[in-house]
Specification:
The chain is α/β, with parallel strands linked by helices. The chain has one domain (12-285): 3-Layer(aba) Sandwich (Rossmann fold), CATH 3.40.50.1820. Helices cover 37% and strands 15% of the residues. It contains ten helices and eight strands. The protein has helices spanning 57-63, 89-102, 115-126, 147-158, 166-173, 184-193, 198-208, 237-246, 262-265, 267-285, and strands at 21-26, 31-37, 42-46, 68-72, 109-113, 133-137, 224-229, 251-255. An eight-stranded mixed β-sheet has the order 1-2-4-3-5-6-7-8, with helices on both faces. Strand 3, helix 1 (57-63) and strand 4 (68-72) form a beta-alpha-beta unit. The longest helix has 19 residues, at 267-285. It is globular, with a radius of gyration of 17 Å.
């Protein structure tokens, strides 16, 4: 199977991706896509609020040079809106635990971005023995409801919108470090995000409003890396730094000039930080 962009304008952001293994995993609520590529120590990539595993594909290509990379979709990604939704972050964390069981992965490294970072954190505090190393990007210990997120959720909930809606696209633009100019990256982000149903996006924003692991962070056992874009307009860098400081032994790495999607715009730098964490993990295990 190969991944390709809907528009040729997306260029290298959606180059064809050779997938060594494309399968389906059965969860309690239904079936989802699982992608495996590369060889080596496994890293599970947990997608954000919208865009599914495809938004992480450019980063996966780089990580797969030295690792087996596993990508999957949350319930509701690229699926009918009627698919059973989890009412709390814990439900998505249980899905992730089910995936680890399905693939027989014992304490892999897990990398969560944004909403996916909240999912990984929830698993890390409730089932710390499941995670061998944790990488987080664009997440904080307690979701702070901002005006922009509130407006976006209410619009998504109440008004059926056409694809490429300009209002929601402005919300997507907040993912960048400043308003992006026209080009393949901006097109790629918008197109991937719109592949997630707007009702699903609204539901996940609502679920995030109840996310809070502040009083449970002491339970984290895995070596942890917190990556933060210094220009992140969704989760400011100071709040991500505070998350790293609250986790014993965690390392904080700022991505200079990056926004909320530093895993795309600064993916080579992200991969270097991940390699450093994985090397440290191997040395401590010897």
């Amino acid at each position: 199977m190969r991944l390709s962009a809907k528009r040729r304008a997306c260029g290298h952001w959606a180059d064809q991706l050779d997938l060594s293994d494309h399968l389906q995993a059965v969860f309690r609520w239904g079936v989802t896509e699982v992608i495996r590529l590369g060889r080596g120590e496994p890293i599970v990539l947990v997608p954000g609020l919208a865009g599914g595993w495809k938004l992480l594909a450019p980063l996966a290509r780089i990580l797969a040079r030295h690792h087996e990379v596993i990508l999957y979709n949350h319930r509701g990604d690229h699926a009918p809106l009627g698919v059973c939704q989890a009412s709390q972050i814990g439900g998505y964390a249980e899905d992730l635990a089910d995936l680890l069981d399905h693939l027989r992965l014992e304490r892999p490294a897990i990398f969560g971005v944004s909403f996916g970072g909240a999912v990984v954190l929830e698993l890390a505090v409730e089932q710390p023995q499941r995670i061998g190393a944790m990488i987080l990007h664009g997440v904080e210990a307690r979701f702070q409801v901002g005006l922009g997120a509130t407006i976006a959720r209410r619009v998504l909930e109440r008004f059926p919108l056409p694809a490429d809606n300009q209002f929601v696209n402005q919300f997507f633009n907040l993912l960048h470090a400043g308003k992006p100019g026209p080009g393949p990256l901006a097109d790629f982000v918008v197109e991937r995000c719109w592949e997630t149903e707007q009702g699903v996006m609204a539901h996940r924003l609502r679920v995030l409003e109840g996310f809070d692991v502040v009083e449970r962070l002491w339970r984290v056992e895995a070596p942890t890396l917190v990556l933060a874009g210094t220009q992140d307009a969704i989760v400011p860098v100071a709040r991500q730094r505070a998350l790293a400081e609250a986790i014993v032994g965690a390392r904080f790495a700022p991505l200079e000039g990056a926004g909320h999607i530093g895993f795309l715009t600064h993916r080579a730098e992200v991969a270097r930080h991940v390699a450093r964490l994985m090397g440290h993990r191997r040395r401590t295990m010897c």
